[in-house]
Amino acid sequence: MPGRHRTAPWQVADHFAYEREATAYDAVLGVCLTQPSIARRLGKRPQANAENVRANMLTEANVRRALEPCLEHQRRFRGALRRYETARTRMDYLHDPPSPETFVLGLLTLVFLLVLVLAPWTYVAGMAFLPAVAAFAVFRNPLWRMHVRHNTGELLMRSVMPVHERLADSREQTWRRELQARGVGPLMERVVEALLGEDSDSLLLPDGYEGLRSPRNRQYVIDNEAYRRLARKVAQREGGTIAVSGPRGAGKSTLLEHCAEEADFSVLVQAPATYAPNEFLLSLFIEVCERYLRDSDYDVPEFARLSTVSRVVRRLAPVVRRVVRFLCFALPAAALVVLGLAAAARSAGQRYEDAVRQHAQNLWTGVAGAAQDVWRGERVGAALALVLLGVLVWRLRRWGRWGALLERLRMLFAMVGGGLLVLAAPVSLFFDPGIRQGWRGVMDGAPLPTLLLGLGVLLALGIETGPRWTVGPIVLAGRPIFAWLLVGDLILAYRTPPVHAMVTDSGNPLRLACLLLGLLLLRTGRWTLPQPEPPLVTRCRNQLYRLQTVQTSSFAVTSGPPALVSAHTSSLSTVPPALPALVSDFRELLTSIAQERYARNGRVVIAIDEVDRLGTDTQALAFLAEIKAILGVPHVHYLISVAEDVGASFVRRGLPHRGVTDSSLDDIVHVQPCTLAESKSILERRAKELLEPYSLLAHALSGGIPRDLIRYGLRIMEIEEKTRFFELTDISRQMILEELAETLAGFRTLLGKQQWTRETSEVLLTFRGLMDHFRHLCPCPSTELHGALRHVAFYDLERQLGSAAQDVPDEVCRLIDEASAYVLFSLTLLDVFGTPDFARRRTAAALRTDGDPDLLAQARQELAGSPYSARSLIMAIRAAWRVPHHAGGTVPAIPRPRSSPCPLHTDSDAPDEPGSDGRARSQPEGGQRHSPRPAVT
């Protein structure tokens, strides 16, 4: 920073032997200061800035600590640097200015070398005599000898200098990497921590929170104890119905999705808010059929669009395009091949026609004679063999592997026949006398064209597997260049008489035909014939047609003479199945699917989510009673998410009587709110920037409910972006007060719907007075706001209203107690998180009873059950954290609220004191301040 004294790194002479070492150390300091983990913490507090960090890193003690892990690499760098400096000093010493003697000597040397290289060996002695004499004369002069020696040494040093320089650069880069990774980087982290002062973890340093922005993303889900329990229960059973019980937002849906994804076949459906058993089972049936078709790689039939011209055209357009493209290439190719091989095919047919006909006649005569002999009874043994063969054929009518056997025989015939035909074409060349004679002439008269032709053929054969390199539009390796090389070789070789005679041999078209036919057979051998549709796929498709369509058929009969025609029309329409038939068909189909998957060691899971949306526990139990008919399918796991009261009904089975849960459910898994460790894991997975104090804050506000935990984590980031606060005290107070304002607004709305009198309306005035304090929210500690919160937190209805308290309905009293307990909980959070020196106070509270931070989340959970038990727990927590609380007596009345916004936070978006990143570093009055303290030494 200009105007400040800064110690240069090379002034620490005890640790750096060369200035280049110190310069490299200083460069590493600059790189480490720009790393995100350090740069984002600079400027958040006044003393933690880049200038102070650099100054602390240049102290002798810190330089020694930074260099200790990398002393070996520094020693190697220093040795390479010493050799480089020595060579440069030697080169400077040997450097002489150019002199006439040097030019003369160089010219004589050049002439001598030219004579040795260019002159014939017979004239070397005579031509080299003059330069040798001149060089001898030069070397007799001492001054000339010194110049030659110095220039030769300088030349050698100049050739060695680049090697030393590159070695020094390489050792320097290695030392810098090690210094950054093991020395300066970790030490600078500690220096920044020390400069930040106490409670450095209370700084919020956001970087990215994609995990909080996508709460349903599977990559951020972690396995908890509930998932492990459910996985064990599923693994222990071959089937059954398992309920997943827990509060709203506890992660039941995520748990079901996780188990459904790991199953071999799974269907996840949502229970309707207003259910009808027939409609729910119908939708589940359709979903199972469609899922099985997709898993079997078959298309799900479409029923929405029927007989429209555009639909037909749209479906036929791709087929027509493929057929036209195929015909555009197939017809010309077939015409050219047929035209070229027609003469060879006719010649082969005429040559072998008589022989083939004679063999066929002989074979037919033999088979017919044998059949006649058996028919006349002359071959008894053959007759018995034929009878046994007929019985065997009849017994094999139900053998299910005929299709696979025929397919293997077809592939075997295609591969063997095609391979033989492909080999027959080149092998026949060795047995053709004309080809052998032409080959001798080629090797004797035209070996070069033949070699080029062979090279072209090899390149053409290697283009399928060879790599390709392209330089602009030029293909250096691939089909185009090899094809053109082959064409050029063929043209060059074809013009030579021996090659021309070999190419135009009369048997080559027949060989080419055999080669093409063999390649075609090999290609067909890899084809797979369309397999018949599996029975289960057919059943699923038929069920979809049955469940989603109404089918009608009609026919007409005409009778009488042509003048008198009468028509009789009958119509048949299918009726959707009733619930009993639907249940029976569904169980039958699901049983078949489960047996198929079970035979392959698979698992079938049917997950029914959102049953707790049905409303009351009575409606949920009625829903379980209605769908009980589809439960209990062998080898099928039903996973059903239910509310806590339904789970409690299953736990109480037999006390005093058995209910529908006992007969419908086989087991239950209770999903409890997250513990503090689990909440930390969730937030660390989704946003690593939320350090432990912020995880504790989100855990306490959410009560360990994962859905609320993620929501509060995102709320913390939102407040940071909105207010530009970085301190835990500011962010926590802003967040707690905003949540409290929203909650109290809801309570006041509920209280406003009650019946009030003039005497009891004092309650509404109390809540109105408290709400006025939230009109100008500010994270600054406010005595007025704190007094208003204490007044409501310890509100005594009888003391405030006197005898009029008896006229307040019980429901109103319950709402007042709930609001008062929640205000006390929020006041406790303000005292715990909104006060400076959180780390020290947490350590002290952990040594006392009820000082565990997890109890704050348990108090939030207890508020959902009873405000009275929650108040008792909150008071114990306040005592453990040494928070002052009201211990009886008169509670001060609600003070008057602020009439104007806080001057320190009038515009939270405008930074008060820009830091290194342009953000504000708020220092509210009475808030946490941090005095400079020495860094690590």
Automatic annotation (TrEMBL):
User: What ranges does the record give for the region Disordered, renumbered to this chain?
Assistant: 890-937
Q: Which UniProt keywords apply?
A: Membrane, Transmembrane, Transmembrane helix
Where would you find the membrane-spanning parts of this chain?
A: 107-139, 323-345, 380-397, 409-431, 446-463, 475-494
**Protein name per the record:** KAP NTPase domain-containing protein
Question: From which organism does this entry originate?
Answer: Streptomyces diastatochromogenes
